[in-house]
Write a structure and sequence with these properties.
The chain is built from 12 helices and 13 strands. It has 366 residues and is an alpha/beta fold.
Amino acid sequence: MANHSSMEGLGVMFSDIYRDKKVLVTGHTGFKGSWLAFWLSQMGANVYGLALQPDTEPNHWTLLNLDIQQKLTDIRDYQTLSKVISDWQPDMVFHLAAQPIVRLSYSEPVETWSTNVMGTVNLLEACRHVPSIKAIVVITSDKCYENHEKKEGYTESDRLGGHDPYSASKAATELVVDSYRKSYFEQQDVLIASARAGNVIGGGDWSVDRLIPDVFRSVMKKIPLEVRSPESSRPWQHVLDSLSGYLLLGQKLWEREQSSAQAWNFGPVSGQIATVSNVLESIHAYWPAFTWHIAKRDAQHETISLGINSDKARKQLGWTPVWDLNKATENTALWYKSLQENGRVVTATQWQQYINDADTADVCWL
C-alpha cells in the first residue's frame, strides 16, 4: 500500500497543527508506532522514524510501505541517537520505542530496564540539546501503577509501581519524564507529557505473547488458541483511540498549554473493561475460523484485573474514545481476516472509517 497524504472531505484534524511539522516518532516500526506514522503522514506531517528493524515477519510497518525519513538504530546507543536527532532538528517528538511485552520482561529483565528507562533517558538527553523541539509526548503504560486489583480503574494520581520488570520499568520511565521536565525542559520552554493507554488492539500487531497476534497465528496454523487466563479483565481499546489521545495531547503541548504538560490516561469508557473471554467471543463472531480452549495457567505472576480511569483527559482535554469494545474487536478481526483471505491491508480503509465515525461523534479534535 502506498503512502497517501490527501485529506479531501475529512475536515481539519487537531487544528491542522501537524501539517508540515517535522515529527519524530521513535518505535515507528512497531505496532502502535506504525499506525501513528501513517496517521501523521495523512495529515501532511514530515515524519521521521527512529527504531529497530521490525522483529516479526510479516509486520505492519513493511506492509504500509510509507515514504518517510528513518534511521534504524537502538535507542540505547546514545551517540547515534543524539547525532540523528541533531541532524533532523524535529519540531515534536512522540516516544514509543520500548520493550513492550510483560512476559518477555521476565526472561529479559536487563534488556527491558535498559531499553525502557535508559532508552528514555538517552532520548530526553538528546532532545534537550536540540532547540527546534518544542513538544514531547512519552508513551508509557497503564501498567505503571502499583496494582491492587482496583475495580474502578487507576487515576493519574495513584501510586506508581510494578511487580514484573516491564511494569516497574514503565513506572520508572514516568519518574524520568517528571525529572527531565522539572530539571531541564521547564527552563527551556519545552512542554513534555506522558501518556498511559489501556490494552491496545488492532490490525498489524504480530508481537509475541499478545492475545490478538496469538489469535492470528492460531488461525494460520489451523489449531485452537490455548488461553491461559480467560477471566482476566483489561481496559481494551482500539489503537486509533489511543493515538487520538496522543495526537490531541501533542496538539495541546504545541499550542503551549502549560497545564497539559503532565501525565494522562487514555482508556475506554467506564464499563468497557472486559475479560479475555469477552474479547475472544467477539472476535470469533466476526472471524469464525478462530477457535480456542482454556490451557493451564503457568506460575508467572500476571495481574487478573486491570482498569484505567480517563476522567481527567475527558474533562480537561475534551478527549473521548470513538469506538467501543465491539467496534474495536470487529475492526481488529476484519483487519487480520482481510489479510489472511485476500492479502489486503485495510489500514487506510479502517482509518478513514474511524475518522468518519469520529466526525459523527463530534469529537473535539475534528
